[in-house]
Amino acid sequence: MKKTAPAGQRSDKWTVAANRQSQRLAAAMDPNLFGRRAEVWVATWDKAPKVARTAVLEALYQLHGASNSSDLEADLGDAAPLFFTRLTSWLRMTYKAFERPSDAPGGAVSILLWLVRALSIFVRGAQYATLLVESGITGALTECLSCGTATVPPALAAEERSAILLLLLYIANAGRVYREMVCDEEGLVELLHTMQQEEREDISMLVMDLLVVVGQGNPRMAPLVHTGLVRIILFRKEDEVARFPGALRTRSETVVLQVARALRAMQMTKELQFYSGAAESEHLLTIVGLRLAGAPPGSVAPPTEPLLTAATTEEYLSALLFLNLHDTNTSLRVEGNELLTLAAKNTQLTARILNLCFDTMDDDHLVIAEEDDVAAIATRQRHQLSCGRAVVQIIISTPMTKERRAIIINLIAMRSAHLTLLKYLRMSEGGDLAAVGDCSKALQLLAKAADEQQRRPELSAGVYVSLAKVGQSIREAVGDSINQVLLFQEISEEESFAILRAARATAAAAQC
Questions:
Q1: What is the pLDDT of residue 210?
Q2: Preceding peptide of 223 cis, ω within 30°
């Protein structure tokens, strides 16, 4: 049995070791070494124990934590590349067996963190950034990040994960060549796994930023990054994880929210590029995370990796509806609503999204029985309101093209979905100014389309379904005077609530 030294003896040993470490640090920081410091450090490195190497790394950090590459090279001298090679070699040999920090002298910060800090200082110079990516160290760093499992938190400390991600971000932002060399498909999977496992918001934001940069202007990796982000959302659902052997469940809703916001930002960028370019059919509008007919060919994902398995249209829409119908997180519902609205601008998806939302809105019980679950009824109504908001946003979205307008109006007329919109208006809370105003604008669009088809049918290009019943139902629901407002005036906030009151009064009168 191993004997444990008394506390007093351990304290004495640590005091001696601390003094020795301070001497090593002072020697490494000696001002007289200026111009040849790296040469001395290399000699020390090659024959020194591990604890002495950490003193050298700490000296580098204290001397040049805020230095530029010129000052660094002037101090280190001609042997700087040799010293840099020592750092990368040691990291490559030890990153799978790094030790946790201890209370012993030299152990307050892990060796891995000292190495990452040292490399971060060197890569301020372009030549060292090139040497770093060519040495394959970026692959070792991404592997370090993902060394947790589905049930065990990440093995790295938060400070280590943050330092590694900042180093990788610095390299990725150095230019397209560096960005493409930061990680391959395997490294991307490790970053996605890191994102899935991360529970600290500040660190998951760094991972998210790195994923976005890796996919930016990189046609080989961008489709895989986008696919992985959609899968992170889907793998928050237990049933989706169960479908893929080896898949991990996304731990945190915060991560899902960050991914949703990133997807929305990227989709808005794609939309801006599409509408600012040459006029094309909207079925060619790129949807981030989904490959539709007519889309340019992308990278083929390894079939064995769940996170890089391309999402089908059904899976993609399932991810958006999961966000839009979330029961507890309002922010997720907002992002889901925005993503559905953006995706519906591709005319291959417009009708599918509207039908999914209308199906949810039309799922009603005519009578509430005593045995019905009140909580389930409240949940269903919340889902209906969420889908109603998405439908209204799709109807009034801009820019609106003739092709998409025709799809929307034809579908509403065929489904008699104007009645569903009137129901949504009556369900809306009086204090929800945006919901009432937007729904009123959607009804105005339908009323004007019906009136236009009746008076000037030649202007109703693409609308092949009769809108007579649509116009009549809206007029009966709001009354003749309000209907005139819909047809000939811009709707103000006051008029929106007048429309709401009229619709509710008509419904109440019909029940009497």
A1: 97
A2: no
